Amino acid sequence: NLKPEDVLLDKDGHIKLSDFGLARSLEEITTTFCGDPYYMAPEIITGDKQTYAIDLWSYGILLYEMIAGEAPFKGDSPKGILKSVLTSTISMPDKFSEDARDLICRLLSPNPKDRIGSKDIDEIKTHDFFKC
């Protein structure tokens, strides 16, 4: 799963992603439960079918954390965090713009089929959040 320590900047300020240790092709079936609870999509926790929409979820968590300075889901233990992911409603701090709220809410849809970008990644690229 995507998390802050996997996002690097090169000398020109371009983003590079690292740590693909848990990466699998979508054709591979995986039953291993692993990853950082803060960035784990609900379908991983419940054992449902995994698609690349799990990466959209992680991206939504990362974006939230970059703006808020903290993770959207809380817990006293990894198990508590996982429970929070499945049961909590995300609260958006006042400093979030309307465009940020919309994008993050759509990335963090509990249903992977409803996540922005799950049908066409250009949905994310053309979102108002990215317009100057």
Helix- and strand-based class?
Answer: mainly alpha
- What kind of sheet is the major sheet? 2 strands, antiparallel
Strands of the widest sheet, in order across it, are 1-2
CATH fold-level label: Transferase(Phosphotransferase), domain 1
The number of helical runs is 5
Distance between the termini: 28 Å
What is the CATH architecture assignment? Orthogonal Bundle
Number of domains: 1
Low-confidence segments: none
Please, could you describe this protein's structure?
The chain has five helices and two strands. The chain is mainly alpha-helical and 132 residues long. The chain has one domain: Transferase(Phosphotransferase), domain 1. A two-stranded antiparallel ribbon has the order 1-2. Helix 2 (53-68) packs antiparallel against helix 4 (98-107). The protein is globular. The two termini are 28 Å apart. The relative contact order is 0.14.
